[in-house]
Amino acid sequence: MIPTAITLVLAALGATASPVEPRAADGLNTRAVAAGKQYFGSATDNGELTDSAYVAGLSNTADFGQITPGNSMKWDTIEPSRGTFNYANGDVIANLAAKNGQYLRCHTLVWYNQLPSWVTNGGFDNATLISILKNHITNEVTHYKGKCLHWDVVNEALNEDGTYRTNVFYNTIGPAYIPIAFAAAAAADPSAKLYYNDYNIEAAGAKSTGAQNIVKLVKAYGAKIDGVGMQAHLIVGSTGSESVSAWTTNMNAFTALGVDVAITELDIRTNTPATAAAVTQQAKDYATVIQGCKAVARCVGMTIWDYTDKYSWIPSVFSGQGAALPWDENLNKKAAVYDAMMSAWGTGTGTTPTATPTASVPASSTTTTAAPATSSAASGGTVPKWGQCGGIGWTGPTQCVAGTTCTKGNDYYSQCL
Ligand SMILES: *[C@@H]1O[C@H](CO)[C@@H](O)[C@H](O)[C@H]1NC(C)=O
User: Fold this and answer.
1) Residue 244 C-alpha to ligand 1 middle, in angstroms?
2) Where does the pLDDT of residue 109 fall: very low under 50, low under 70, confident under 90, or very high at 90 and above?
3) Which atom of ligand 1 is nearest to the CA of 126?
4) How many angstroms is it from 164 CA to the middle of ligand 1?
5) Active site located where (predicted)?
6) Is residue 370 part of a domain?
């Protein structure tokens, strides 16, 4: 870690550490830390790690104090067939984080997508699927025990209207699969912070309320949940980036339940090629997200979903869109965007960072919480602009608000644009 490196350098020079330590280098992470956060980080993936210029940028801890494996800790990679565990790719990312002195956000244990067909189509009964779920979680969390700052335990369990997404776990076990997953993860690594992670929960609304209900549900079962990850796959100028107060109001609704929040998969896409006006707006939007997190003590950190457009998932999934990240396809910083992000974190004072917020575990909730109901298939209602309107497994409304069209992003996701 940087402070250790500084100490070693100072020691080598025969200097004594002053109470106000200089920062080794100025960057997004050092500024986030100076603002009281634990980290600013980036997702990465195994295929990119042969690109040495890319790895050098990722390993620059002035900018990135944390990394998240994009795919290699997901169920289809880890347990492709029942009882066969494959940690090779996940280990590569975990080892890179350790070598660089970066925190690791481990992602993700229970998700309906990238789930092997032996799970989805196995026809398991409730007790058997619970044992499969627990076995998967126990095995994987034990393998990475002590290495994960956070675990995204359950990912994307909600529909846009805040009801539970139907998937094999929900259909077979019911909502109990969520607290069962958290309890299994907590038992396997008591020191990892356990997160629920989802998209379109960055602004107040039905889905954000649904995520708050998941926090209450897990606590009502007596299981531990430490935080909620707001993915923040945003669109230039759209919901989720409009105002700092919108961010803080929504984040405070979660922290009031006794959990931390983190921005876990931030990118802000636009039509490509990006216009100058779009880049200007994008710089503002990134700054708004940072200011929102900065203003909430229990917003512990922020992760962008890779740092360069060269390896962004956006163009392959949202046709005609991209340019979503602060570094361009040639690994160059986009000056306007990067500078806006740096300014938003603040110039920093060079003082020792304030204590990071502790993820205190409040007493489990004693109030009984009504679990969100499942939406009836293709239930009525209109999907707002940017909302999900279709995709495999989608049971929510499909009618887009006037002036927008339901547009396919990929097989799993269509959106009103
Ligand atoms: C499955 O079993 C669990 C644990 O006993 C229980 O909480 C849950 O309600 C059951 N689900 C169904 C659909 O019966």
Assistant:
1) 41
2) very high
3) 1
4) 16
5) 265
6) no
CA 8, 13, 15, 17: dihedral to nearest 10 degrees?
Answer: -20
Share of the chain residues as helix, strand and coil, in percent rounded to the nearest 5 = 35, 20, 45
Pocket of ligand 1 (CB under 6 A): 126, 130, 173-174, 176
Q: Does one domain contain both 393 and 314? A: no
Instruction: Show which residues are catalytic.
Output: 265
Token pair recorded at residue 190: 């008591």
Cα(174) to centroid(ligand 1), Å: 6
Torsional sign, CA 267, 148, 211, 373:
positive
The residue segments making up the domain with residue 399 are 387-416
Nearest Cα residue to atom 5 of ligand 1: 127
What is the rounded average pLDDT of the residues 383-388?
A: 64
Tell me the pTM: 0.80
Dump pLDDT digits (tens) for 38-85.
Answer: 999 999 999 999 999 999 999 999 999 999 999 999 999 999 999 999
Q: What is the pLDDT of residues 276-290, one digit of tens each?
A: 999 999 999 999 999
Looking at residue 401, its pLDDT comes to: 80
